[in-house]
Amino acid sequence: MKLFAIIKKEIMAVKNQRISLLLILLYPVIGTLLLGLAMTGTNFDSGTNIAIGITSNSSDLLDELAGSSPNYTFVEYYNVFALKDAVQKKQVTVGLEFIENPGYQAKVNIYYDNSSITSASIFTSMVKTNIENIAREKTLTTISDILQTTNLFSTNITDEIGKLKGFKKDLEGTDVILNDLEYKINSFDIDDLKSDIDEQKQNIATFKEKNARLKEILVSARTEFTNLQNVVNQFNSDIDQYEASLQQLESEMITQEAQLNSTINELNNLYSQIPAPIQATYAQELNDLYNLSNYISSWKSTIINVNNMIDSTNASQANLNSTINEFGTMLSELEQESAEIDYALNSSEQGIENLESKLGLFEETLTQARQLISESRISKADIENKITQSEELFAELLPKMQSFQNMDPQLLIQPIKIKLIPTQINSKLSGSLINMDATQLGVMVANSISIILILTCILLSGIVILSEKSQDIPLRTFMSDANPVTLTLGKLLGQITIALVETMMILIIAILFFGFPLSANFVGIILSVILISAAFISVGLLIGAYTKNQSTTILLSLLLIVPMLFVSGIIVPLELMPGFISSLAGVLPMTAANNLLIGVIVKSGGIYFIWKEIIVLSLITIVGFILFTLKKQ
Amino acid sequence: MPIISLKNVSKSYGTKKVLDDISFDIKKGDIFGLLGSNGAGKSTLTKILLGFEDYAVGKIKYYDGKPTNLKSRIAVVPQNIAAYLDFTVQQNMNFFASITNLPKKERKQRIIDLIEWLELKNFKDVKVRHLSGGYQRLVNMALSIINNPDIIFLDEPTVGLDPKMRLLFWDKLKSLKQSGKTLILTTHYMDEAERLCTNVALLKKGKLITTGSADQLIKKYGGENVMILEIDQDIDDKTVNLIATTEKLRIKYTGKKLYIAFPQTHSFEKVVNTIKKHLIDKHYDIISANLKEPTLEDVFLNLTGEKLS
Predict the structure, then answer these.
(1) Which of A94, A192, A307, A571 is deepest in the core (most CB within 10 A)?
(2) pLDDT tens-digit profile of A103-147?
(3) Interface residue B49 vs chain A (CB under 8 A)
């Protein structure tokens, strides 16, 4: 019974503190909900959006990577520096730089923010795994291609061996034909034919020579002679006609001259009889008649000259007739020559007939040989065609085979070389107790400071305020001469001093045991810790001011601290959380504190990376300060 | 000239009236007692007088402006030990002195004087947590009056103290009064109020029952004196009735004890002699005769019908 009484008392103790009871009931709800929501992002089928920065849109690998997960969203940056900057500013989860060269090993540089340890390990592994899967697919495709080509090559080689056997058979058939042809050719007395041919060749040569000369003479002589005869005959006839015509013309012109002169005289008489004024009118016509008379006189003398020339031509005509006679003689000589040629031709005719019969035999052999050649040509064309086909086939296969020859075995094993590049300077530390690089250590120190500060500042300041309240100290301080702002500020600065001492302890341990560099930005760390602790203390002061007992203060503090730890990005990456949770986390003091410290310790980008956190923490401090001061009043 | 004057002050929380038409004056140099049972409105009235709470109706006049402007001249000695328990007496004194407007030199001297005056010299380097309840209360008062205020509100300052410490505390309060301070004392202890207070206000359920000096109130509302007689044998009814009728006194009796009430105006000796004469006649001998005078407790009981403590 006593035991039950004690159990009942314990339950009643909680039940009677309504706020504590409410917080105890809220804890599992809020904690589980938040952690659950925070973790929902780890289910990649639920549509979590992962932003990936890239330097170029035109990449086969990018297309394959985009196809590997529907959760990826790609953001293009104009160069690697912009990409790294975006990764550092957490605008994208990871950055990818594709360096592709067909036929060679592709390179993928994965830029990740190593100042965010959980994010870096999860997302770089995820993207790396996806790319490795793509690489494996590529290797599989290449090996399949090689196997397919090898199989094709093997099939083709078998075909080619069949073809070569066919060629061999064809060549054997050709060999039989050639043997037959060889036999026939061997049986042919080629020397006898050669002797006859030589003899006939000689005869024919003589014949050809004479016959050629004769033909030339005959052709030219007959042509010239015929022409000459025609010309001479025509010439004689024309000369005779001209002579007769000229003689008639001469007599007619004499008559006409006489008549004209008589007419002119009559006209002169008539002219002298007409009055002087009228004479002028006919003077021209009379003058023309005189001219005509003179013209006829000149023509008459010309005709006389021509008659003289014809007379002289008659002498030449006699010479010409003599020449023609000589030419006739020469033609007779030619006829003699022709008779001799006829004789030579008759003697050759018999030899040629003999040769013709031998040639007939030879022709038959040649026909056979031609047929054989024709058949051989067909076979050759067939073989050539097949060889061409083989060449084409091999030409088709050869590049592939050559590509396989030139293929780097490394490419087959590892078609994509992945390099993980942290965006922060990442040097190994000497003197460190554990294997940790500078960035990891920086992040560890930042996480450590922010976790310790949130626990101590909120809880300590909350409990201090509560304990003062329970002792009526606010009444005393209110009644003092110090104004509320001074009282709050003093409390805040005092707690900040304690936070600074804690930070010093963390830094000393980090320096002594983990090799935290002495070159670190200690001024920045101290200033950050002042701001962070001010924000946390403001929250703690408010909790202390608005709660009435210690259990409520602790529960409410933890109710704020634990979810803030869940969603701060230290345990679960912010990128994995649903959008509204990660947005909310961004303005929570724990997240801001952690990011601010990482920004100061790890990143060297100055205020560029931390201005948002400074604003968030300053706002929390100012709001907390004002609310607490008002509450005190 | 009253240092604080209340006229028709009322206050309600929602529909519940917690103060109803309160009017009284507190004179400079008074130890003014606010007396009443739980829920009488003492705390609300104190908060209003300190300026922590507003009041809806009435007027409160301070000798020098509003209470918020008088912060440095008003002190509160809360019922709780409003000190940092893990600080030493000296550390607490130093801190609370440092948030006053006293000049540094004066501050130091004030601390020395207070430690001396409150007999805390031997405990100045002891953590408050480790002090006895009485000394914690002295420290509590020291911290409240460190800025040398004119008006001091004390909320149940001697609760839980042993008689010795209680007497010491009363001495210190009297000493403060003598130095010209005005003390406003909230207490359940009627003897404390009776001994210390120059004036008291009796409250019941937000209403002022009466106000005045303890003597005045006792005379006015305390009722009759009571004489307690012890005799040698059990008394009979006839004798008692005879005395009561003859002398016009109210008498209660049980066995050998008689309780005889008589007006405060009558002399105790005269009444004893009268009663003695009747008893001797009837062969009774008086063994002892004691007087019980009325107290503020009686006043409260008579006025409210309930006991305060």
Answers:
(1) A94
(2) 777 888 888 887 776 777 777 888 888 888 888 888 888 888 888
(3) no
Q: Phi/psi class of residue A567: alpha, beta or left (left: φ > 0; alpha: ψ in -120 to 50)?
A: alpha
3-class DSSP state for residue A415?
coil
Q: Is A471 an 8 Å CB contact of chain B? A: yes
| Same domain flag for A343 and A482 | no
Angle (CA) A519-A523-A524 rounded to 5° is 95
What is the length of chain A?
633
Count of domains forming chain A: 2
CA distance to partner chain A, nearest, from residue B103 (Å): 12
Q: How far apart are CA B142 and CA B148, in angstroms?
A: 10
A571 is in which domain, residue-wise?
438-632
Contact A597, A448 (CB under 8 A): no
**Residue in chain A lying closest to B67 (CA):** A479
CATH architecture of B2-220: 3-Layer(aba) Sandwich (3.40)
ipTM: 0.79
Structure-block tokens of residue B304 = 């409210």
Distance between CA B214 and CA B296 in Å, rounded? 7
Distance, in Å, from the CA atom of B43 to the CA atom of B91, rounded to the nearest integer, reads 30
Short-list A426, A454, A450, CA closest to A440: A426
Q: Which helix (H) or strand (E) holds A177?
A: helix A117-187
pLDDT digits (tens, 9 = 90+) for A145-197: 888 888 888 888 888 888 788 877 877 777 777 777 778 777 767 677 777 76
Residues of B in contact with A476 (CB under 8 A): 76, 78, 82, 96, 143-144
**Of A557, A553, A502, A555, which Cα lies nearest the Cα of A525?**
A502
Tokens of A224: 């010239």
Fold category of B224-293 in CATH: Alpha-Beta Plaits (3.30.70)
